[in-house]
Design brief:
This is Helix-turn-helix of DDE superfamily endonuclease. InterPro entries: Transposase_HTH_dom. By secondary structure, the chain is an all-alpha fold. The protein has 7 helices and no strands. The longest helix has 22 residues.
Amino acid sequence: MLDVNTIVDDRQMRALTGLDMATFCALAEPFTSGCQQEADARFTDQHPRKRKAGGGRKGVLASSQQKLLFILYYLKTYPTFDVLAATFGLPRSKACEHAHHLAKALERTLRTLNVLPARAIDSLAQMQAVFADVPVLLLDATERPHHRPQALVDQKADYSGKKKTDA
């Protein structure tokens, strides 16, 4: 099982999380409050707690440092949930739940620290303004599955024309 205490040096920490030890430790304290805020936001009047805070079985990811290691490792390497669960000693369904909840907590923490990168660029002019001092810009994109519409009219509107013959 991967644990914060088993990581011995900066090189190993950088390989697993992308951060050195000093940056990881500096991020761990604000991440604790980010986790708490995210947990409080998850439970509302529509979805109340089943137990008091702190009640119930203790999780495998007990400390906030272990949770931070978990989410940074996941975001750096993107393993399958089966691999992630085996690495941290969790059931795979809990690995999925933790990944989603802790990603929100990390985003909340980074927003609080004002280090969250800008994600939304609305126009080509805005992109050129943001990357004006960059001589060469390479964009990497991932294809995502596109659900085929059921209505025939919508299917024709989405058709790329790839298999049309010009003859």
